[in-house]
Amino acid sequence: MELSVINIKGEDTGKKITLSEEIFGITPNEHAVYLDVKQYLANQRQGTHKSKERAEVNYSTRKLKRQKGTGGARAGSRKSPVFVGGGRIFGPRPRDYGFKLNKKVKVLARKSALAAKAQADSVSIVEEFTFDAPRTKSYLEFLNAISVTGQKTLLILGAADKNVYLSGRNIPKTRIMTADMVNTYELLHADRLLISTPALDVLETLLNK
């Protein structure tokens, strides 16, 4: 697959980039994508949920009424889960939701996400650029120039650029990441992938090991 390289003004530079068939030309593996996204979302969970069980509720332990002769069910403690304010049965406890996923599966998932976007014509290759100073207006002008205003965009850079990052971080539906930090969830979440030419080299190096 061959794509034209555009500059910061949205103009065609006349250069062509051939995307790696080993990444952008494969048949997406949906199950690998599912597992990688599931792991990513699981790792975002704090897992700090907790409710008090019977042994942790602060109530008296005296017997509420006599065992027999009342006509009702026996009740031994105000802490019983059947009473309002009593302990919760099998309540949530703090836990880690993360799980192990093989590196090869994660690589396949990222390749699949990139391939799916490329096959949907949702990938643009951008010439390397930077800003003289952090300015949100400069980044908005860049988005307007390439006609993606209002879309969810993910700009992938070859290396961290403070001015570019600070310029785009407050714009809704806009994400900026370096190629070595890209994950399957972010790739799929974006409507449009904007990949800089240095980032493309980094991605091919990382995913074709």
TrEMBL record:
Residue segments, region Disordered: 45-78
Pfam families: Ribosomal_L4
Keyword Ribosomal protein applies: yes
Functional note: Forms part of the polypeptide exit tunnel. One of the primary rRNA binding proteins, this protein initially binds near the 5'-end of the 23S rRNA. It is important during the early stages of 50S assembly. It makes multiple contacts with different domains of the 23S rRNA in the assembled 50S subunit and ribosome.
Subunit structure, interactors included: Part of the 50S ribosomal subunit.
Protein name, UniProt field: Large ribosomal subunit protein uL4
KW Cell division (keyword) present: no
Record's keyword terms, sorted: Ribonucleoprotein, Ribosomal protein, RNA-binding, rRNA-binding
GO BP of this protein: translation
Name of the gene encoding the protein in the UniProt record: rplD
GO cellular component: ribonucleoprotein complex; ribosome
GO molecular function terms listed in the Swiss-Prot or TrEMBL record: rRNA binding; structural constituent of ribosome
Annotated family: Belongs to the universal ribosomal protein uL4 family.
